[in-house]
């Protein structure tokens, strides 16, 4: 049975920033919509197979790569919590995970 998916406030904000960037950069929502689809499909897979992501140095935190983005998530007994959506082209020193 698939686990419930919970997007944290930070991960929702991350997605909005990413989508707005591509909307302005491309003057079209096509790529933003494609990313939304890819993120959602990846999260559906995580709900079914929570251990598919790579463990990180942070306790109980895993990462799933989606193109140039990393979905950081926590696998709990009943749900998957998406903690951050990180554009890997950013400076890694700016990444705050908790």
| CATH architectural grouping | 2-Layer Sandwich
Helices and strands, in order, run as: EHHEEEE
Rounded to the nearest angstrom, the radius of gyration is 13 Å
- How many β-strand runs? 5
Number of alpha- plus pi-helical segments:
2
**Spans where pLDDT lies below 50 across 5 or more residues:** none
The CATH superfamily turns out to be RelE-like
> What is the overall pLDDT average?
95
Q: Report the top-level CATH class.
A: Alpha Beta
- First-last Cα distance: 29 Å
Helix content: 25-40%
Q: Estimate what percentage of residues fall within beta strands.
A: 25-35%
Task: Summarize the structure in words.
By secondary structure, the chain is of the alpha+beta class. The chain has a single domain (4-89), classed as 2-Layer Sandwich (YaeB-like fold). It has two helices and five strands; from the N terminus they run E-H-H-E-E-E-E. A five-stranded mixed β-sheet has the order 1-5-4-3-2. Strand 3 (62-66) and strand 4 form a beta hairpin. Helix 1 runs antiparallel to helix 2 (30-48). The longest helix has 19 residues, at 30-48. The termini are far apart.
